[in-house]
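Researcher: I'm preparing a figure for a lab meeting and need a structural model of a single chain. I don't have an experimental structure, so a prediction will have to do for now. The sequence is pasted below. Please return the structure as tokens so I can convert it later.
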Amino acid sequence: MHQQVSRPPAFRVPPLIKRNTALFAISQSFTGAGMQLAYGIGPLMVISLTHSASLVGVSVGLIGLSRFLVAYPVGKITDTYGRKPGILLGLVLALAGAVIVGLSMSLRDPAMLLGGILVFGMGMNAAQQLRVAATDMFPPHLRAQALGYVALGSLLGLVITPMMIAVSDRVAPGIGQDPLGLPWLMLPVLIVSGMVLVAYVRPDPKEIGMRLDAYYPDYVRPAPRSAEQGSTFSIVGLLRNSATRLAIASNCAGQGNMSIVMVLTSLVLAHHGHSLTAIAFSHMFHSMGMFAFTIPLGRLADRYGRNIVMLPGVATTLVGAGLVTFTSGLLPVTLGTFLVGLGWAAANVAATALIADHAETHERGRAIGVADSFAGAISVVTAVATGPLIEWSGLAAAGWTAVLVAAIPLVMLAASRIRR
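Model: Understood. Here is the structure written out token by token.
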């Protein structure tokens, strides 16, 4: 895997690249609304059909499981056939899953609900290959910023989702639909719109990545790998490289920490007597932390280096988890959940850019897919473990677990420096 190049002179981004990036960002805003539904009302749907609070984390766990299942295979597809076919395949799956989820509430079928969430999650996580597409279209010193622009599209989804829920709450009783299920039957309109936008991206970002010097005349392509460095992609090689191994660990730490805190925030605020409005307010700030600052974080990662953003991001999630767990007021808990979202964004953007830097264009989908698979696995483990931890040992035990998960890459870095 080639090393990140030093910062070259500023390049002028071609209008074609700007256009493609804008199409991906707007598509992300439409399709991202579905993920907000999954996280926002998914647990309520599970309780509604199963009447079991102990299963509240199942929907979040299924989203993590779906990420684990599809990230690498779809990366293989996009490396072989191009980014657009993989993204569009994912959106088709997401559309089918959304319809299944919506119908499950009308039919009151919990098995159908869980199957629909799994299919939907597989589709949405497959569509995350658009992050790979963004890194393809930019030289190394602009990649993290490009990821920031695409991620910013999710911020608009935060506005769309409450509007869908509000309309559903008002309309559903009059047409004989479940208010929790109707938003999912509205979602295909957004998904199809996202598919149309992706279809207009031309040429395929993988083709751009293979010929970056044709779009950026001053860009100097790195020398191809020698025979000793290997010419085929290897998961073992990705994990053996200390830089990419730390990036994968940082991405997992941010995801695992956030999976716990997303559940913990609501429970902590409810435990201390705060209203549902206050809880929604706190979650809104968490989402702002996740998406509102991705562009400046990307610029910092491009200018000063990936680790300068990635590792402080992980440390920020650790501090945020501590505030959520060990304070009781609305403001400190909200600050904590905001910091968790902000730290996750920093770790995710910088880690993804770092992995893209160390992977050739024709293997980048698989490389980032491996990182996403590990993040999905840790999300499943933490989502499943959070409920029992709280039931057996209280809220503090889950909070300490979130702190410890975030500390893992920091310990890895310290151990590496001690060995040197």
